């Protein structure tokens, strides 16, 4: 009887320990780097533009998925890259980078309306990231130009700084 009570207490202590550790929300902080001086050339689609872009990324997983999508794009796997970026958006819908990369994919696929809307969404989220915003305006300009809105496309290029 006494042994049963000891085993019961021991089981409860072990279970409580498992519950406490499984509910833990430990998060490692992402170290902030000093911003690099702005580049004269725009980086490739979805490239990390500066340390400024780290300010709005809450998950390292989004960065990993963006890097994977970049590799898939380089390999010509547009559909796989698209799926990877959709996963990144599910993790953190406030991150502008996956939206920008999706806009570029839609542009490559010839879906001009979707490319324009995704680039505009990325711009809303990008806030102070001038390089990413410039990339988005170039995507918008190309989409508008392809749709025959040359005047609006020129205005978008001006906003991009080109």
What does this structure look like?
Helices cover 66% and strands 0% of the residues. With 162 residues, it is an all-alpha fold. Helix 2 (60-74) runs antiparallel to helix 3 (78-91), helix 2 (60-74) packs parallel to helix 4 (96-109) and helix 3 runs antiparallel to helix 4 (96-109).
Summarize the structure in short:
With 162 residues, the chain is mostly helical. The chain has helices spanning 2-22, 60-74, 78-91, 96-109, 112-126, 130-146, 150-160.
Summarize this structure as a short list of keywords or feature phrases:
162 residues, mainly alpha, 7 helices, elongated
Count of β-strands: 0
Largest sheet: none
* Helical fraction: 55-70%
N-to-C CA distance: 83 Å
* Helix count from the secondary structure assignment: 7
| Content-based structural category | mainly alpha
Q: Using only CA atoms, what is the Rg?
A: 23 Å
Strand content: under 5%
Q: Per the principal axes of the C-alpha atoms, what is the gross shape?
A: elongated
Unreliable stretches (pLDDT < 50, length at least 5) are 19-43, 47-55
**Overall mean confidence score, pLDDT:** 78
What order do the helices and strands follow? HHHHHHH
Write the layout of secondary structure elements.
Layout: H1 2-22, H2 60-74, H3 78-91, H4 96-109, H5 112-126, H6 130-146, H7 150-160
Helix pairs in contact: 2-3, 2-4, 3-4, 4-5, 4-6, 5-6, 6-7
């Amino acid at each position: 009887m006494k042994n049963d009570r000891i085993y019961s207490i021991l089981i409860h202590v072990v279970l409580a320990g498992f519950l406490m550790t499984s509910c833990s929300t430990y998060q490692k902080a992402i170290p902030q780097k000093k911003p690099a001086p702005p580049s004269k050339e725009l980086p490739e689609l979805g490239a990390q533009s500066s340390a400024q872009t780290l300010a709005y990324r809450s998950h390292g997983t989004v960065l990993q998925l963006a890097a994977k999508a970049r590799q898939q794009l380089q390999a010509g796997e547009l559909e796989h890259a698209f799926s990877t970026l959709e996963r990144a958006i599910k993790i953190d819908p406030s991150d502008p980078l996956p939206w920008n990369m999706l806009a570029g994919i839609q542009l490559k696929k010839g879906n001009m309306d979707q490319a324009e809307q995704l680039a505009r969404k990325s711009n809303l989220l990008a806030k102070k990231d001038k390089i990413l915003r410039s990339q988005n305006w170039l995507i918008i300009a190309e989409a508008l130009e392809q749709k025959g809105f040359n005047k609006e496309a020129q205005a978008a290029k001006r906003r991009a700084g080109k």
